[in-house]
Amino acid sequence: MARKLLFYTHAFGGGGAEVVFARLATAFADAGDIAILAVDTADQPPPPSRSGLTTLVLPPGHAAGTRALAALLRAERPDASFSALGAQNLKHLAAAQLAGRARHCVLGYHGFAVAEPRRFARASFHFAALATRLAARTICVSDVLLDDMRRRWHASPTRTLRIYNPLPGDIVPCATAPREKLIVAIGRLVPVKRFPDLVAAFAQIGDSEARLAILGEGPERAAIEAAIARHGLEARVELPGHVGDLRQWYARAACVAIASESESFGLTAAEALAYGKPVVTTDCGGPPEILGHGKWGRVVPIGDAAAMADALRAALAAPSDPAPLVARAQTFALSTVRDAYAALADSLG
Question: Strand 211-215 relative to strand 237-241: parallel, antiparallel, unpaired?
Answer without folding.
Answer: parallel
